[in-house]
Structure formats: C-alpha cells, structure tokens
What we know:
Elements: E1 3-8, E2 15-17, H1 35-38, E3 42-49, H2 57-70, H3 79-90, E4 99-107, E5 119-127, E6 134-143, H4 160-172, E7 177-181, E8 187-190, E9 194-199, E10 202-206, H5 216-227, E11 231-235, H6 239-243, E12 247-252, E13 256-263, E14 266-267, H7 274-287
Helix pairs in contact: 2-3, 5-7
Amino acid sequence: MASVTYIKRYDEDGFWSDSNDQYRGNPPMIRAMDNGAWVGVGVFDSARSFEGVVPDLDLHCQRSILSTQRLRLTPPVDAQYAIDICHKSIAKFPKDALLYIRLEFWAAEGIIPANQSKINFAVVTTEVPWAGDTFTACVSSYRRPDPRTAPTNAKANALYTNIHLAGVEAKEKGFDTALMLDLNDNVCEFAVANLIYVKGTTVYTPKPSACFLNGITRQRVSGLLADAGYRIEEKVTKLQDLMEADEVFSTGNLFKIRACTKLEDRLFDPAPGPVAAHAKKLYWDFAHGRIQSKAKIII
C-alpha cells in the first residue's frame, strides 16, 4: 500500500516521506513525549481522491482547522496551506489512484491541559480501495456521547475509541458495522458514516444533533437528492423508523455511498435500492463536474 506523508512540527520546517526514502511514506510521526501520544489531544479529517477528482477537499480542510480550534488549540497552518499540501501529495501518485487523504493536528507539549499553541500538523495520503457497495449492521450497545461529556463538535481522535468498541462488538456478532444511538435512544448514524433512509416517496435523515457531526458528504448527497426533486426531511429518528424503511444507506467520506442489506434481522432487498443507486450517480456526476450542487454546506 503506497503512502506519502508530509509532517510539519510546530517548531520545524515541513518534510516529505515517500517510497523513495527509508520510511517509504510511513515515517515516525508522533514523538514519545508528544501529548498526542499519551493524553491524545488531537483531531483528524480526511478527503478522497478518485478518478482524478477530489470532491469537497476545501471543506474538509476547513473543517480540520475548525475542529482543531474547537479543541481550543491553535493550528500551525491555515486551510489554504492544508489544501496546497493535499494537492502536492495527490500529485505524487498516478492521476487515477484511489486515495485516502488524512489531515492531522495533535498537541506536542503539555499534559493536562496541552500546550495550546504547540501543535503539529501532518497529511498522510494512502491508497485505500473501496469497501464494496453494501454492508450489514447491528445496533451497538455503545452510545454516542452527550456534548457535555465529549468534544462532539470536532473530529477529535478521542471519539474514535467509542467507534472502535462499537466496531469490535459488531464484528463479534457477525456484522460489518454498528448503528449508533444517543443516550435518549435516538438514531444518530452508523459507526463511521452518516445515515439516510427512504420510506415511500420521502428521503429521511436523522436530524442533526450535538451528539454527532453533520457530515459534509451527508449534506452534499441530501442536497443533490433535493436538487433532483426528492422530498428530503430531517427528523428525530427511532430504530423502528429504520426497520420500517424501504431503503437504508450510509454517506461518508471514506466509502461515499453504501447500501445496508441487513440491519439486525431486517433484510433490505434490493440493495442498493433505487434511491441509493441514484444518489451515488448524482454524487459521481457532481464530483466530475457534470452537475452543480445548490447545497450550502455547514462545517
């Protein structure tokens, strides 16, 4: 798996690592005494490059800066610097390479609290294949945290321990991923992707709450469906709503649009259904510039 990494520590010039050096794009990145190595103060965001396009890269870079600031940290670079590094990283691969571009910010010094101004930055770009068009899911026993207990308004690294546990639990039960609820048993999203479902002629998505991020790809796909004439409704969603749905699918940066074939013992057939299939076509058309999107993305 080919990788290219750019690292800029707060007190040093940035440097690149790729297949031509001793680390082959996977250099030591976090030092033993970095806060991010043990206390874990840091954030990440990501983008996808496929078929020569990188949809919404600017928004993902902007959100990485906002996430860092929401942890009360001072990013050492701005969004445009991050965008430029991402493009330089992508250019080191063949034009049609299928890439996952990960932006990271983490605290270098301090314990609790971390030193807010000594923040490191990295972009790690790796070839990562698609996971397929479908998946299965079970309801997790873990819950999305309340915003009073965790930094749910940021893509904070700390939140992903919860996701890891939900994912392990799902795998042990024989499912691909987990459906996450909040502490009030409202549906939030899947473990690593937002959620859209269809009932009759209406496309629904769980109403954004402070317990989970209103994903960029979720907003983009919802907007494209609205532009295409679908009725879109955000609502407080219960598990029963999904069990009675005609289609359930996920939206996320890593795998874009994937259809759920089984939720607990509820089977969805066909999967992908017609709306999920149309959503994927619309997204690909948008990514390649064949159609425009009217959506106003909130980051």
